[in-house]
Specification:
With 178 residues, the protein is α/β, with parallel strands linked by helices. It has helices at 9-18, 64-75, 95-111, 162-166, and strands at 3-8, 25-33, 36-45, 50-53, 58-60, 78-84, 117-123, 126-132, 138-149, 152-157, 175-176. The protein has one domain (3-176): Cytidine Deaminase, domain 2, CATH 3.40.140.10. It contains four helices and eleven strands, in the order βαββββαβαββββαβ. The radius of gyration is 15 Å and the shape is globular.
Length: 178
């Protein structure tokens, strides 16, 4: 199974503006059905949300993720995380991103009572994405980022798929779905 993520155009434009520099982060609350995350709200992480940031790493304050999880759980929603690697390299999750998924995804899965989770990464104008839909240890690719204006489709971005392609069984505590 593959996943799709759908934004309305104003949300996606705001997200791209926020992710213009390396290691910017945003979380989105989404409903999930039929393999698609429908984004309802995007929260850019900035100021007091950030404990530390460099061109290669960002760390959120300890209270940020629990608050996001609590909000999603109370609303019965999934979370979609997005971050930027800036203009460098190609769109793919870094080894450190993958190591972070090892603990984060099972914890999130448990706290959200099995709600799916997706992660997106932007590098320049390119994107990559992974999703955990049926298990916190089985990852699927995000095959499309859909951008729409109301009910009409406005655009389709095809993520690179580089991370999913390169994952070996067991890397970062995740298993490629087949």
């Amino acid at each position: 199974m593959t996943a799709r993520v759908r934004f309305i155009s104003s949300q996606f434009a705001a997200l791209r503006r926020h992710l213009h520099e390396p290691e910017q982060v945003a979380f989105a609350f989404a409903s999930f059905a039929g393999g698609r995350f429908d984004i309802l709200e995007v929260q850019a992480m900035s100021g007091h949300d950030i404990a530390s940031r460099s061109d290669r790493h960002v760390e959120l304050h300890d209270d940020v993720r629990p608050a996001l999880i609590r909000s999603a759980s109370d609303r019965g929603l999934s979370l979609v995380e997005a971050h930027s690697h800036g203009a460098r390299g190609h769109a793919a999750f870094s080894p450190s991103d993958l190591r972070g998924f090892h603990d984060w995804v099972p914890h999130l899965w448990w706290r959200l009572r099995g709600m799916p989770y997706a992660a997106l990464v932007m590098a320049g104008e390119a994107w990559d994405g992974l999703a955990w839909i049926s298990s916190p240890t089985e990852v699927q690719p995000v095959c499309a980022i859909e951008v729409s204006q109301d009910a009409a489709d406005m655009g389709l971005i095809v993520p690179s798929g580089a991370t999913f392609t390169s994952l070996a069984r067991g890397d970062a505590g995740v298993r490629r779905s087949t």
